[in-house]
Amino acid sequence: MSRYLASTALLGLLAVVACSPQKPAETPAASEAASEEAVVSSLAPADYTSLANVMTCDWPVKKTDTAESLLAIYKSYAQVADIPGAEGITQKGVVIYGNDPRRRVEVFFFDDALTQVSTVLIRGDSQWSGPKGLHLNSTLADIAAANEKPFKLGGFGWDYGGYVTDLNRGRLAKVKGGCTFGLRLGLPENGGPAPEAILGERTLLSTDSAVIAANPVVQEMSVGWPKPKAETDEDVDQ
Asked: Which residues pair with 185 in a beta bridge?
């Protein structure tokens, strides 16, 4: 997975048909900015129930994609950019629909050449959904119901806090398509001070009363793949 951590073919096909990006009409250089604003404002509102907005192992990015392929597919809707991460670090990747917070998708890579996708991430105001209809701002109870088992997560209040670390072999650990589904929870801004028992570098259970009382919600959602094994001389000989 990327620094942020630790689905089917039919669904992907339906999604592509429903939400294939359209190339905007070419305009003179002097009016490019105005044209881009028009394109963004014409995007359809996100809908959690629409297959076009369901993030899977194959949509809107698949494992075999590269920065080059994504730029070719999404054209002006995608760009290579420095994406902010933990501890103030940025990582070069691809941002899709960067001008529409409702549809923004951030793509991270294992390599500097941007040819091996590691993680596809949504956060902020993005309105994509994932397995079992989960989306940003889904609650602890929503996750537990979708997973059908209790799960473990990291303590809150630090740069790497709130990540779900163990789905306990629940439903969410069995995403079709070969990718791994990731969640990061955060505490609501208006929830008041959090108890010390759920803060810092520690492992929490979703069934802990202190965790339940804190009402955490999903702040990041991702799909990802393990890092490809390095090719050895023996592999080349074969």
From this structure: 218
